[in-house]
Automatic annotation (TrEMBL), chain A:
Pfam families: OB_ChsH2_C (PF01796), zf-ChsH2 (PF12172). It comes from Actinoplanes aureus. Residues 278-298 are annotated as: Disordered. Residues 167-194 form the ChsH2 rubredoxin-like zinc ribbon domain. Residues 202-266 form the ChsH2 C-terminal OB-fold domain. This is OB-fold domain-containing protein. InterPro entries: ChsH2_C, ChsH2_Znr, NA-bd_OB-fold, Thioester_dehydratase-like.
Automatic annotation (TrEMBL), chain B:
One of its GO terms (molecular function) is acyltransferase activity, transferring groups other than amino-acyl groups. Gene3D superfamilies: 3.40.47.10. It comes from the Bacteria. NCBIfam families: PRK08313.1 (NF006180). Residues 252-374 form the Thiolase C-terminal domain. This is Thiolase domain-containing protein. SUPFAM superfamilies: Thiolase-like (SSF53901). It comes from Actinoplanes aureus.
């Protein structure tokens, strides 16, 4: 499973000027009340807690204070103190080989070719002294910086999940009963109320009743279905907790509490170890379940 | 137990997008106001407690790292609190506990969210393993439970709209509120778009950037304050699983049990008579009647009747959300702390245009997750 989003960062007055400087190949540090110059700039003075407003330009050349190297890489990680700054910046140094990187090495910023006012405008550091940057007027501060984040997960199934998914791959639904409260959970899981592992495996019908539902009319980022659609809590016959699923085969305005529904399975060739083997639920035509039969499941 | 009091509160001007400030700047806007309101400065703050919304909402996992200097935490203890949407309330309670335990004299509690940097609807609709890919945000989660409430007690359909009109008009009295709609009417709410049937657009909270901060002090700090403080008479937090067989989403057990503990600790026998104003966490308008019942102001099925009678307006028997509440401003991470701060502002007599006259005892309330985390406090003019 992968989830990803392009988060946007409002930079505010200090970081906005810092990023604008990078776009123009200039590095700005912030001077705090004790006279120290911080690079990257701090927004608030760690000693006085006051906002920092004094930004000063430092050199794009600096000195490696400390470093580390990962075998097989062409660059190392280093703490670089730029000339004019009192704090060090962590970045990569494209030194080519481990023996070329050392404490005290003079390094300069290698600027990205296409600079947008982003921390990635600093491609990396490289050995050497920078040429003087030509004087230019300070550009407009950058208001927003985009930081894409992408996360990939591999889920290791529990015994209960494993059993449930194997049954799904055979077109069956199973639950498991809690030995303490005797409730049947679908999907089976450690009982959230009693904190004990389930035991008895129970075959569950692929039909049941709508306990409650909502009609989703709102579109949103990442949505997998076109609205409007009905998302219902479906209490399967034999289960003591509803599952959430999609109701099709009936107009949204005709879906009601107590409606009897059955699973519509995808074609057998498409089945795998996933709940998506069930495409949706649709009405069976049976009489509605009486309110009392599901009131305690709301 | 040692006594503790709210010495001062501060909040930001909540907006859809506060692109003029970073997260640090947003927090400081609230903190600087809270320190000024408390008549204190950084030298007197002994510890900082910070809460924010779930990490995926902003894509920031450990805000306490990069915010440490902005929160004035250098050289002091800094704690991070997580309890989903109720985190603001939990943050206030953790800070209170540090003071009541005698560990610190003055603690700063701050909570924030910059919803504009992400998309909470997206973050809340990610398909967890083994479920159908049909999540639809917080509205999609809570709308079916609102339907269950309506069915269980035969509540008339306009109750949700009544709450929305009240809260949005209250918000118009609050200079910090994100949505300020003095002209809203029952008809306009009822003709607004149906988002998650039965929840309409105007019955739904906005997506806001904002922060809130409070300074909590011990007996000596409170006594040396030149201004009225809000004495913290009781706090309560309870948790339950998101789902379990027999979970009552309309009347969650953790909320009811927390409230019982809260009233007992505060020595309150009849909440409806003894509480002058309540700030309840109402992100969808129907949660006002649901929480009125859950915390025990009225019996089961009577919440909608109290709303319909108009008694939850400013001037009624129990004004609810005079600030406009979550329906007017929803920086999720801060929303719980805003409820707690607004309750304190009421008993301190510093709620401005939305002040409930004579408010002496107030409830602050928050909930989070799938109605699973509950936090509340009672504050009063007197200890």
């Amino acid at each position: 499973m992968t989830i990803a989003f392009d988060y946007t960062r409002s930079l505010g007055p200090v970081l906005g000027r810092f990023m604008a400087g990078l776009r123009d190949r200039r590095v700005l540090g912030s001077r705090t009340a004790d006279g120290r110059v911080h690079v990257p700039p701090v927004e608030y003075d760690p000693v006085t807690c006051e906002p920092v407003t004094d930004l000063v330009e430092v050199s794009p050349t600096g000195t490696v204070l400390s470093w580390t190297w990962t075998e097989g890489q062409s660059s190392g990680w280093a703490l670089v103190r730029l000339d004019g700054a009192d704090t060090a910046l962590l970045h990569t140094v494209g030194a080519g080989a481990r023996e070329h990187l050392r404490t005290g090495l003079r390094v300069r910023i290698r600027w990205a070719g296409d600079r947008t006012g982003h921390i990635r405008d600093i491609e990396c550091f490289e050995p050497g002294e920078a040429e003087a940057t030509p004087e230019t007027a300070e550009g407009e501060p950058v208001a927003i910086m985009t930081t894409p984040i992408r996360l990939s997960y591999r889920h290791t199934t529990s015994d209960e999940e494993d059993r449930y998914l194997r049954a799904l791959a055979e077109g069956r639904l199973i639950g498991q009963r809690c030995p303490a409260c005797h409730k049947v959970y679908v999907p089976p899981r450690v009982c959230p109320a009693d904190g004990v592992a389930p035991d008895e495996v129970v075959e569950i019908a692929d039909r049941g009743m709508v306990t409650t539902f909502c009609v989703v009319n709102v579109p949103f980022a990442g949505q997998r279905l076109d609205p409007p659609y009905v998302v219902a809590q479906v209490l399967l016959d034999g289960a003591d907790i509803p599952i959430q699923h999609l109701i099709l085969g009936v107009g949204a305005e005709q879906v009601r509490m107590g409606l009897r529904v059955a699973a519509v399975w995808r074609d057998r060739e498409q089945w795998s170890f996933t709940p998506e083997n069930i495409a949706h639920f649709e009405p069976t035509g049976e009489p509605d379940a009486p309110y009392e039969s599901y009131a305690e499941h709301l | 137990m040692r006594r503790a009091a709210v010495l001062g509160t501060g909040q930001t001007h909540h907006r859809a997008r506060r692109t003029d400030v970073s997260m640090a700047g947003l927090c400081r806007e609230a903190i600087d106001r809270a320190l000024a309101d408390a008549g204190t400065d950084w030298s007197q703050i002994d510890a900082v407690v910070v809460g924010k919304a779930p990490d995926l909402f902003e894509g920031v996992m450990m805000p306490e790292l990069f915010l440490a200097s902005a929160l004035g935490a250098a050289g002091k203890p800094l704690l991070r609190v997580h309890t989903a949407g109720s985190v603001g309330g939990a943050t206030a309670i953790v800070a209170t506990s540090l003071v009541r335990a005698g560990v610190h004299r003055r603690v700063l509690a701050v909570a924030f969210e910059k919803q504009s940097e992400s998309n909470a609807m997206w973050a809340l609709s990610i398909q967890p393993p083994f479920t159908a890919p049909i999540g639809a945000g917080a509205g999609g989660y809570f709308a079916p439970h609102i339907r269950s409430y309506i069915r269980r007690f035969g509540a008339p359909p306009h109750i949700g709209a009544l709450v929305a009109v009240k809260d949005r008009r209250n918000g118009a009295l609050n200079p910090y509120a994100h949505l300020r709609q003095p002209e809203i009417t029952l008809e306009s709410v009822q003709s607004s778009r149906m988002l998650w049937d039965p929840v309409r657009y105007d019955e739904t909270c906005p997506s806001s950037d904002g922060a809130c901060a409070i300074v909590i002090g011990d007996d000596e700090a409170a006594s040396s304050s030149s201004r009225q403080v809000a004495w913290i008479r009781a706090t309560a937090m309870r948790t339950e699983p998101t789902f379990y067989a027999g979970k009552d989403h309309v009347n969650p057990r953790a909320g009811a049990v927390a409230a019982e503990a809260l009233w007992a600790a505060a020595g309150i026998r009849s909440p409806l008579d003894e509480i002058d104003v309540a700030e309840l966490y109402v992100p969808f308008s129907w949660f006002e009647p649901m929480w009125l019942e859950n915390v025990g102001f009225v019996g089961q099925g009577d919440g909608w009747k109290l709303v319909e009678s108009g008694e939850t307006r400013i001037g009624g028997a129990l004004p609810v959300n005079p600030s406009g509440g979550v329906l007017c401003s929803n920086p999720i991470g801060a929303s719980g702390l805003l409820r707690f701060a607004e309750a304190a502002m009421q008993v301190m007599g510093r709620a401005g245009e939305h002040q409930v006259p004579g408010a002496a005892t107030a409830l602050g309330h928050a909930y989070g997750g799938g109605s699973q985390f509950f936090s509340m406090w009672v504050v009063g003019r007197q200890p």
